[in-house]
Write a structure and sequence with these properties.
transmembrane helix; signal; 622 residues; 7TMR_DISM_rcpt_extracell_dom2; seven-stranded mixed sheet; alpha+beta; membrane; 7TMR_DISM_rcpt_extracell_dom1
Length: 622
């Protein structure tokens, strides 16, 4: 009998998995983006407990999330999530952790070695976020050759979806530019269509265009609310409205879409009495839901809203099919358009109810479908206008007595078309100007250090070379200041990198205040080292500028945890009239040696390397 029990235990141990926990993620030197879903464990909270109690939970309490992002649908439950990351690069890495679902209400992020949790969520003002982004983005420090554990507590009335991604910072910004460009294209298409159809409505007075403008206005507003774009750009302080806007705009989509459908494809009481009454009832129900969304909390409204949206979209698809069967020409475009939009809406709804996984396709299906639908419906409206013009022309041929009236109507239509073309051309020119401005901004960002706002080293190297060539050609004096923050490594180790970043920003601001001429240049050369280029400036003037900068930094204090801190800098100055056009290395070496001499003399001082500067000026061309 004991032998039989032992065999049963052995068999069970072979059948059961050895571990239910997710493996730690590995961040290596080739990593740019890492999906954390396979490395996430979760735990359903049973009554509020402290973070220390969560960290002491046995491993058996946690469940591995699997290969897909966490998605538990709509519920009142509160979940804890954790993941581990091992940095095998051999150097410290400062990455971004992205939570790619912008409508979560309350998120507590417990980072390693942090005294307090980082509080996020759309119930907090947008500008409270550490990174101003429509998603929740958190800087995450990964020490070299160590494994860190991050905990998250999520409490939300929206769908419980927690997609986690770990980014290398430059890769994140590069990917975000692409995503922003796609969103810009989408909203640009919709804006052009809104303006175009609104103009046509004012020109022809056809109510279908007004309903259509209402529909294509509320649809992108709903998507902007759902994807966090509205919270970022339109109502960053409106935490209550950020949730309610989803309810209001989605119901208004059904209201305007239903009204447009009835009028555009002629679903009247005469030809389809039952469908007409059903659609009108649906429009009124959606209108009441939109009004209720201004008063009733989101958690009580979201499920009925999704239900009425699904019923409304299905109803409008049925209307289009019925009118197509009745050989209504407008129903052809309309049916295809609603197939695209309905498919996007169904994919989104199934994703929120966890029937479909959360990925790039399911998250953007509504945008893609609505964009295609908007374009096709605009084609349908244009086709309708075209058919009406043809009927008008035929009537003109049949009714000779109204020839003059028909000619005037044709001229009016031509003016409308010319004005519309002019408006479209103006919009194209406006978009071209916007693109040119955007290109200029991108060039400026490429030449700017993102932390301090000064120019970066690459921009300085080009400007320095050009300035030396100019000084050589016109026999002018060029001055270079090299600044270094005294004891910055000790300061950084003592107060941390975030305070060190604040220190670098303060020094950069002090430098900016004393580098004011258009031709002068201040740049961050690397780490805690800054450079100031002063073309056509003699040595005395350069030393005065350096002394003013040194004094400004010395007297500027900033607070860290109740303590007022002061910094000092050492500055090396080199002023020369170069005898060669390629003397940049010698000039920089001259200023750098002056900097080291200033440090050797006790720091917090300005030293000018006059002797070597004279030597550079006297050197003959090679």
């Amino acid at each position: 009998m004991p032998r039989l029990s032992l065999l049963l235990i052995l068999a069970l141990s072979l059948l059961l998995p050895s571990s239910v926990l997710a493996e730690p993620a590995t961040w290596d030197k080739h990593s740019k983006r890492l999906e954390l879903a396979p490395h996430v464990d979760y735990w359903l909270e049973n009554g509020r407990i402290s973070f220390s109690e969560v960290t002491q939970l046995p491993d058996e309490s946690w469940t591995a999330g699997g290969d897909e992002s966490a998605n538990f649908g709509y519920s009142d439950d509160v979940y804890w999530f954790r993941f581990r990351v091992t940095n095998v690069t051999g150097v410290e890495a400062v990455n971004f952790m992205e939570i790619g679902y912008p409508v979560l209400d309350h998120i507590e992020v417990y980072l390693p070695d942090a005294q307090e949790p980082l509080l996020l969520g759309d119930k907090r003002p947008f500008y409270d976020r550490p990174i101003h982004h429509r998603h929740f983005v958190v800087p995450l420090l990964l020490p070299a050759n160590e494994t860190v554990t991050v905990y998250l507590r999520v409490d939300t009335t929206s769908s419980m979806q927690v997609p986690l991604t770990l980014w290398e910072r430059d890769a994140f910004y590069a990917a975000d530019q692409g995503r922003s460009m796609l969103e810009g294209i989408y909203y640009g298409i919709v804006l052009v269509m809104i303006l175009y159809n609104l103009f046509v409505f004012m020109a022809v007075g056809e109510r279908s265009f007004l309903y259509y403008v209402g529909y294509i206005t509320t649809m992108p507003l709903f998507l902007a609310s759902l994807h966090g774009v509205g919270f970022q750009y339109l109502w960053p302080e409106g935490t209550w409205w950020n949730d309610q806007s989803i309810i209001v705009f989605l119901n208004l989509v059904i209201v305007f879409g239903g009204a447009f459908s009835i009028r555009f494809i002629s679903v009247t009481r005469e030809n389809h009495p039952l469908l007409n009454r059903w659609t009108m009832a649906m429009i009124m129900a959606a209108g009441l839901m939109a009004g209720a969304g201004l008063f009733i909390p989101y958690k009580h409204m979201i499920l009925p809203t999704i239900l009425i949206a699904a019923v409304g979209c299905s109803t409008m698809l049925v209307l289009s099919v019925m009118r197509w069967i009745k050989k209504d020409p407008a129903a052809r475009y309309y049916t295809v358009a609603w197939v695209f939009m309905l498919s996007g809406g169904i994919v989104l709804a199934l994703n929120k109810f966890t029937f479909l996984p959360r990925n790039l396709l399911t998250e953007n299906a509504t945008q893609v479908g609505s964009a295609l639908g908007v374009i096709l419906l605009s084609l349908a409206l244009a086709d309708r206008l075209n058919r009406e013009k043809k009927r008008s022309f035929a009537a003109q041929q049949r009714l000779l007595r109204e020839e003059r009236k028909a000619r005037l109507a044709q001229e009016k239509s031509l003016r409308v078309q010319q004005e519309a073309n002019a408006m479209l051309e103006e919009r194209v020119q406006e978009r071209t100007r916007d693109l040119e401005t955007l290109n200029e901004q991108l060039l400026e960002l490429n030449a700017t250090d993102p932390l301090t706002g000064l120019k970066n080293r690459g921009h300085f190297d080009k400007a320095f070379q050009s300035s030396v060539v100019h000084a050589y050609r016109f026999e002018e004096v060029v001055s270079l200041l090299v600044l270094d923050i005294d004891h910055f490594k000790k300061f950084n180790d003592t107060y941390g990198h975030l305070v060190g970043d604040d220190c670098l920003k303060m020094v950069a601001q002090c430098i900016k205040r004393h580098v004011t001429r258009p031709q002068d240049l201040a740049a961050r050369y690397g780490g805690e080292e800054f450079v100031v280029l002063l073309p056509d400036t003699p040595g005395d003037g350069a030393e005065r500028v350096a002394e003013r900068i040194r004094k400004e930094i010395e007297k500027t204090a900033f607070r860290v945890s109740g303590e007022m801190l002061h910094l000092t800098v050492s500055i090396g100055v080199c002023s020369v009239s170069p005898s060669r056009a390629d003397a940049t290395k010698e000039i920089f070496s001259c200023a750098d040696e002056a900097l080291y001499e200033a440090k050797g003399q006790g720091r917090n001082r300005v030293v000018a390397n006059r002797h070597q500067g004279q030597a550079i000026s006297a050197t003959s061309p090679a």
